[in-house]
Amino acid sequence: MKNLFVKTYGCQMNVYDSDRMKDSLAPLGYQENPDLQDADMIVINTCHIREKASEKVFSELGRLRKVKQRAAEEQNREVKIVVAGCVAQAEGEEITKRAPWVDIVVGPQTYHRLPDLVAKLDSVQRTHLIDTEFPPEVKFDFLPEQLGKRGPAAFLSVQEGCDKFCSFCVVPYTRGAEFSRSAETVIEEAKKLISNGTRELTLLGQNVNAWHGIGRDSREWGLGRLIYALAELPNLERIRYTTSHPLDMDDELIRAHAEVDKLMPYLHLPVQSGSDNILQAMNRRHTASQYLTIIDRLRSAREDIAMSGDFIVGFPGETDKDFAETLSLIDKVGYASAYSFKYSTRPGTPAAGKIEQVSEEIKSERLTSLQQLLDSQQFAFNKTCENAVFDVLVEQKAGREGQLNARTPYMQSVYFEGPDSLIGKIVQVKVSDARQNSLSADIIHEKEAK
Ligand code: 5AD
Ligand code: SF4
Q: pTM higher than 0.70, yes or no?
């Protein structure tokens, strides 16, 4: 048995990929161990979306060099270091130049080859191996069928890559062109996860609502239809999907929000800016009012749907007026939660070459006022949940003895007293107190699985 240490940065898709890498290394005898000092192999799964995220990789690699040296000097033990994910894809050669102690660099579309790369590294005595091509084969067809243990709430990648080419974004370059897995493989993987105890599935994709495929009725399905099909699976209690693009919110998907009870009333639908000029410069291909219309339609379908979003401040050319329009859009929507970022120049993207860059100082000011508004909306939303009764999925023990941690349908984290035997179950709770980032509650009763 060999010890595997995995550290994951970035989005939920990286979390999913890390799990699949663990699955693919299991037949080689690697088992996950949270103790870094005992590791025989260290995988860091990296994120390239913003400059800060990428920079972390090189400082982390500096620390890992010492771990590798210490194991070699004190225990005569070899530690293999693998860099995976989007920084690996974008900067493969650079990584092995700046950090020659890295053994393997593998991209998001080639990690199914990891076991072969490990074997090759051992047999050909190479200093390092880099595999960051966009391969002709589909990795999902080559990953092991056996899935390791996942939690009560698990991720399932159904779509990858992006053809939208927003002018700030590296994803189309690091993850490649849009690709949808077949309905059949998605449903099979869902069944496996459910038989291992998963009760909630979050369907993942960089552009998840662009998912399409031929269904079992030989017709072309969209994400909405796939959700209807997944909702039929017994013992699956809850379905979510993320991240969506406004242009791909089609009628069937919106109808699913009205008709599928298992589809949770919470949607992450990034808009990035409330200014039409900036949306156009970002190549988002929709206006602020079109986005608001989609939200109106979603709310007509499911009155209580809670909205989440992503925002970028300080995109090149953003004026005070543009920024005010973003604040005004936020006022109109009323978000239950949101993520917001300062624009970060990404090499190779169209916006990187623009001359009208916004100063760091203005970006910081705008981010602060935007986050104040979003925080106040989140707090107000949480407050509306006081005394409400929710079905929640118990995911894990909380930090405090005797406490459990669960998620409400609206993705809020909720804490309450209860026995560990409730982990993985749906229980009904009454919210006693709402804070900025979480809720407290009391159990009313445990629900039977549907
Ligand atoms: N700078 C800042 N934020 C970015 N995002 C993507 N690219 C950039 C960038 N260059 C944000 C967007 C996206 C989220 C995943 O990250 O808001 O929706
Ligand atoms: Fe990036 Fe835009 Fe594609 Fe989202 S839709 S992954 S922001 S290019």
A: yes
